[in-house]
Amino acid sequence: MKRKLIYSLTPLFWAISLICLGQYNPFKGANRIVITTSMADKETYLLIADQLTQAGIAFTAADNGLLIRSEQPTSLGKQQAVFEGKLMVNAGLVSLSGWVRRKEEGKNSATSDRVAPVTYDTAKNSLQGIGFNYMDALAKRLQVALHGVTMYKYQKEI
């Protein structure tokens, strides 16, 4: 009887796990990428730091993770944007989120920063979409090094 109960609850367990963690393919509105790993958090941070250094991505340690920034502006037509993000490791999950920063010239030659949170978007001229593509390429590079699985999710910012 116990064996039947366990077998009947197993699909439910996996379904709940997938809903909580995310989906395996990007979807419109996804703003976070999660990579699983079996490595300890300290080893994971060291491996990630090595990968970021090899990719030429600047990073600094923060209270609960790493702040990352693309060295070169990412070209989007006539727009020049810089990807900035936050990478956190906790109990075998690497979480990556970010935003895109672009300088805009206003009237009177004053410049201001336009900041857009990164989300998956299929529009070609979307500043948020180009940032997501940059973040996704970084996640794929990290996934190979971490031997993990990549998932995409939407998480409301607090």
How would you characterize the overall build of this protein?
This protein has helices at 2-21, 41-55, 127-146, and strands spanning 32-36, 57-62, 65-70, 74-76, 79-90, 93-105, 111-117, 150-153. With 158 residues, the protein is of the alpha+beta class. It has a single domain (23-153), classed as Alpha-D-Glucose-1,6-Bisphosphate, Chain A, domain 4. Strands 1, 2, 3, 4, 5, 6, 7 and 8 form an 8-stranded antiparallel β-sheet that branches. A hairpin with a 2-residue loop joins β2 and β3 (65-70). The radius of gyration is 18 Å and the shape is globular.
Residue share in helices? 25-40%
Helix tally equals 3
User: Low-confidence parts lasting 5 or more residues at pLDDT below 50?
Assistant: 12-16
What is the CATH class name? Answer: Alpha Beta
Domain unit count: 1
Q: Radius of gyration, Cα only, in angstroms?
A: 18 Å
Q: Might you state the CATH topology name?
A: Alpha-D-Glucose-1,6-Bisphosphate, Chain A, domain 4
Total DSSP E strands: 8
How large a portion of the residues is in β-strands, by DSSP E?
A: 35-45%
Q: How are helices and strands ordered from N to C?
A: HEHEEEEEEHE
Largest sheet: number of strands, sense, barrel closure: 8 strands, antiparallel
Shape: globular
